Amino acid sequence: MPDRHWWITLALSGALMVALGAFAAHGLDGRLPERLTAAFTTGVRYQAWHTLAGLALLAWRAQQPLAAQLTALRLWSAGILLFSGSLYAMALVGLYGVGLGPLGLITPLGGVLLLLGWLALAWGLWRARV
């Protein structure tokens, strides 16, 4: 199966997303300030959308492979890790009353990577005239 590692990565991202969403709903509710719970659920939401977009991209890639698809997948994966991951970490660090430190600086970088994934996909499609 072409792109097997991407399918596995996205399947694991989906499983993690469900687990973290359940944790947010049942494990964090009422234990964190609302802003940290909202940050955590924002991370889950962005992970969900980009995981679903990645799965759709892989299905499309099976029919019509383009270099831009891989670029988008790489940027989205890094973006999920940094954007959603930093939001998860900030919430969990807040749960234990530890200072947030530089975690807040990582989140925008992850967001930029997510955005660059979409722009790279658009640019690649423009150049390929698809």
UniProtKB/TrEMBL annotation:
Subcellular location: Membrane
Membrane topology: Multi-pass membrane protein
UniProt KW keywords: Membrane, Transmembrane, Transmembrane helix
Transmembrane residue ranges: 48-63, 75-99, 105-126
Keyword Transcription regulation listed: no
Main subcellular location: membrane
UniProt entry tagged with the keyword Transmembrane: yes
Superkingdom classification of source: Bacteria
Family: Belongs to the UPF0382 family.
Protein name: DUF423 domain-containing protein
